[in-house]
């Protein structure tokens, strides 16, 4: 599933190239997770002002309204001058004077939704519950630690929930907890302020490095320019069950948490 680094890498790969373009056509394929909620032809002629990210959503700002894109579990975007006929899993095309932005999504859990503004009901429904962004300077220790103290569930599940901080998906939660030396099963409320600070800094570090590495390509993720990510190649614990810890040599373990695989070092990470 594309997480914050993959979505940010996708944004960076086409944001500059599409800025200022005029929409010349819109094509809808098979139904996605949510409907566009707008007449496609009414988008023709509108100008793309820029592309932002909120959590795992891409916000394509228009001179009137915006489009919220979500990649779901298997989606990817491609932007360029290739206007060949759509294939079986190409479900949304935004054609512009500067290129075609195409959403490919084999499992169709992604979506493109129109909203009149970021304050409208359509946008608030999707974005209103999201926690703070970890990479824009607003991820503060006090609020993070206070939020942890109110939650009795395992810290890994709290990170994945996205209510305190957005974008820490399964790979990056395992990696950040390893760097912070915290066992993923530790109850969030039991984490002290110093350990919360280690975790906060680890989240920022892991996500920043993942963006620089182009995200993680485990199956079919690629950015809008077709490039794959390489962060997974330097993972300390993720997908390394049975292998020795790179720090202490202890065998990495794998457990299930909320139907997701969790990886950790039982020596380096303390409850």
Characterise this structure.
There is one protein chain. By secondary structure, the chain is an alpha+beta fold. The chain has helices at residues 4-18, 121-127, 141-149, 155-161, 170-180, 193-212, and strands at residues 23-28, 48-54, 57-62, 66-70, 76-80, 90-96, 99-104, 111-115, 253-257, 260-264. The strands form three sheets. The chain has a four-stranded antiparallel sheet, with helices on one face. The chain has a four-stranded antiparallel sheet with strand order 2-3-4-8, with helices on both faces. The chain has a two-stranded antiparallel sheet with strand order 9-10. Helix 3 packs across helix 6. It starts with a helix and ends in a 7-residue tail after the last strand.
What does the secondary structure layout of this molecule look like, with pairings?
Blueprint: H1 4-18, E1 23-28, E2 48-54, E3 57-62, E4 66-70, E5 76-80, E6 90-96, E7 99-104, E8 111-115, H2 121-127, H3 141-149, H4 155-161, H5 170-180, H6 193-212, E9 253-257, E10 260-264
Antiparallel strand pairs: 1-6, 2-3, 3-4, 4-8, 5-7, 6-7, 9-10
């Amino acid at each position: 599933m594309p997480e914050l680094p993959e979505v940010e890498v996708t944004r960076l790969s086409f944001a500059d190239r599409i800025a200022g373009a005029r929409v010349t056509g819109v094509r809808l394929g098979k139904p996605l997770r949510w409907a566009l909620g707008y007449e496609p032809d009414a988008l023709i002629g509108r100008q793309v002002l820029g592309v932002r990210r909120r959590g795992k959503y891409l916000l394509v700002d228009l001179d009137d309204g915006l489009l919220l894109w979500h990649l779901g579990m298997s989606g990817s975007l491609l932007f360029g001058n290739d206007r060949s006929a759509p294939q079986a899993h190409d479900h949304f095309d935004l054609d512009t004077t500067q290129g075609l932005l195409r959403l490919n999504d084999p499992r169709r859990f992604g979506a493109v939704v129109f909203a009149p503004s970021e304050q409208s009901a359509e946008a608030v429904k999707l974005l209103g519950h999201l926690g703070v962004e970890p990479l824009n300077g607003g991820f503060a220790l006090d609020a993070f630690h206070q939020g942890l103290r109110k939650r009795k569930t395992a810290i890994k599940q709290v990170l994945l929930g996205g209510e305190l901080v957005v974008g820490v998906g399964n790979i990056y939660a395992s990696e950040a907890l390893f760097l912070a030396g915290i066992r993923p099963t530790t109850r969030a409320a039991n984490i002290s302020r110093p350990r919360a600070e280690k975790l906060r800094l680890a989240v920022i570090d892991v996500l920043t490095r993942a963006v620089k590495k182009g995200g993680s390509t485990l199956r079919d993720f690629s950015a809008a320019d077709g490039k794959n990510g390489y962060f997974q190649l330097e993972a300390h614990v993720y997908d390394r069950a049975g292998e020795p810890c790179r720090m202490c040599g202890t065998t990495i373990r794998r457990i299930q948490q909320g139907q997701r695989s969790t990886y950790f070092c039982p020596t380096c990470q303390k409850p």
